[in-house]
């Protein structure tokens, strides 16, 4: 056995949670559906004294966990979930390109830096099949390889990284002291905080969607595309992500049906041309998803509507991949910081225009809480590109360095 094996069933919510955890942390595993594999079903029963308990997760050394919590999985996988100190110069919340760039800049200058990341290092960039517009990579680089390089770089400079931990609250303790509370109840202090939690994919919010997320509805083609080898899939969206991931999915799927709400793709011309010229991709404009259907926790059908004619039809793909934009990961500061109407964090000049009387004049990347900065996709006005996030991370590190000089 060379990889982790997850024994479960599509209807099992704990199985979906465990798979999501492994995907978030970019940990390879083999999925085995015990409802389709009698030998696997008997194996699970043997491990569990005759009981059919799922998920049962078997590791390469032969050990296994049964219905593990995320914390138990993190411990088994050796993910560091507790910090070595109680106080740092800087706490970075989020381990994507913006957060990791800031961390390597500050740690390189001897600034004691802690990064807290609930998922895999690299953020959404890590799940991108190919990055072709990153300066310095003329032949492109896979998202996973880019994330691995970033992780090695921050490790080289001694950045401390917590994994499988989520920040719940930010507190202003004093002028020189802020703190964060994590999902396990730990409290860590710092002079300054940088929020770089990025954004996540938006959902369609139609009937049935919630029931089949992870069981036929997905938001990451890199993570879940290989499960649908030789089967038809649907992609929803018209931007760059939808176009690029549609092309990527043709490596596995027998055919890809792309549903576009508008009259044309909004993706770049290069990406759009690849889609429209691909023999395995069928594109339908003016089409929207109205509902998802299935049974036993497994997606079976998708109702779609032609918004020009009003005609409805039912598609029966093996899976649906949704790429319709992003929502900021800012819920934990919704009651603490000033956000824009969409939930992105306001900083600098935009913040000054939004709030009549601020207790301080913020730096360009500083939030409404003095000493708390934001960078990358979670920030209002940011350019949702990897290169831009890297640049903001570097700029935030310089603002942090200057702020620390006054403390």
From TrEMBL:
Keyword Flavoprotein: yes
Domain of life: Bacteria
The EC number(s) this enzyme carries: 1.8.1.9
The organism of origin for this protein: Ardenticatena maritima
Name used for this protein in its record: Thioredoxin reductase
InterPro entries: FAD/NAD-bd_sf (IPR036188), FAD/NAD-binding_dom (IPR023753), Ferredoxin-NADP_redctase_2 (IPR050097), Glutaredoxin (IPR002109), Pyr_nucl-diS_OxRdtase_2_AS (IPR008255), Thioredoxin-like_sf (IPR036249)
Keyword check for Amino-acid biosynthesis: no
Annotated FAD/NAD(P)-binding domain residues: 88-393
PROSITE patterns: GLUTAREDOXIN_2 (PS51354), PYRIDINE_REDOX_2 (PS00573)
A Pfam family per the record: Glutaredoxin
Coiled-coil ranges (or none): none
Molecular function GO labels: thioredoxin-disulfide reductase (NADPH) activity
